[in-house]
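Troubleshooting: if your tokenizer reports a length mismatch, compare your output against this known-good record of 461 residues.
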Amino acid sequence: MTKGSNGFVPSVPLRIAVRGGVDAMALLLGDAGTVRGDGDVVFHGAPVHPSGTVRLTQVEAGTAWLEVGLTAVEEQITRVLLVGSTERGAMRDAAGLSVEAYAPDGTSVARYDVTDAGGETAMVLAELYRRAGGWKFRAVGQGWVSGLAGLATDHGVDVADTAQAGGGAAVPAAPAPAPAFAPPPVPAPGFAPPPAPAPPAAVVPPTVIPPVAPVAPGAADWWTYGPVFEPYTETGRDNDVITVGGLPPGPVVVQLDVRGDGYTGLWVLDRRNKEKDNLVNSTEEDFRGRLLATVPAHGTLRLKLQAEGPWQVQVSPLAAARRLTEEEAEFRGPEVLLHTGGVADMAVHYRGDDNLIVHVYELAGHDDHTTLPQYENVVNEIGKRRETVPLPEGPLVVQFEMADGPWRARLKRVQPPTRPPHPAPPGATAPVPFAAPGEPTWPDKQSVPGPRRNWFSRGRD
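Known-good structure output:
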């Protein structure tokens, strides 16, 4: 399997091999994408889930084995994450890193070889998740530079500090013995085809936000970087390739809305039809986001989309991006914003659980409208937080490259601009008003409170 791909597996007890000499772990998650408590973490310090349905059984010759009894997994559990981590080096140093699932008769039913691991020290290699009355296996390959502690915290685990004053790590009592893991009493001679998926939900047309107002030439907040064109919109379902021709070369805003709970990936394709720039790599339910892409010199933008469910893609000029103002605005997911005023501070309140990554592109002195200058990374954090980021004088592009949940942003302490607006490209005119990309309402995830105990401090025997 390739990264992001998925397929049904038989609803039987599976044996799962995690190769590469990494430590293996399983997290059992509910609808909210979090564990219910400490017992939903299966690792070397607690190798058996209280229900007995998930076990870490053995480690041999660089391979760790997990057993997952799909037929007996509690109804409240909707996903089982298969995690690998390392205490020495990074995941890219793990030779032959892979995850493979076997049926009781030894048949391999799913395998994913991780070929693009980087400097992270923990990774969700794959996941098993419920779909249409059965179970599917998805190749994820999503890493956490913050390590196992960051990965666990992002999924609702209460991670304790391992160092304690005057003593070593606390080790709680071992869990009570769980029922034996056994195959079904009557083995099936073959695997039945998966149930037919439920009928897809219709794509909801986006609501329209107020258009970009025309601004008099010479005004300080007139956005003149790059040409303006009529937005292009395309809708579809599941995996596809989107081709948009006749565009002016340069940076554009790509809005993607997907209705579904599967993996979402979006890449720009090069002239050889190979993946060039990865714009989206997400397992978020109902993904939405606005992304930065660059139209090549020949004026055709090709995008490879991997999605489960109905989707809508809209390609708009950079001038269509929303403006940062002193009035607080609500957002969700990745976003592209413009700042046209003087030196200011940007206040951000992020309520997501995963990475928050923000880049700033300073356009002053950059006269090539077919490219963007090198960005400055101003935020790279994980989890809920409040940030205040100093911004230089505009014009700026502020890119929220990764943001998995709801967030707010506004400007404060804005100073008047000290320089004239960025010069327009030859032959450019003031932006004309048009309907900017929509802002559909996406429901926030509901957290599921539950008892949590400190588990990360439990060392090996």
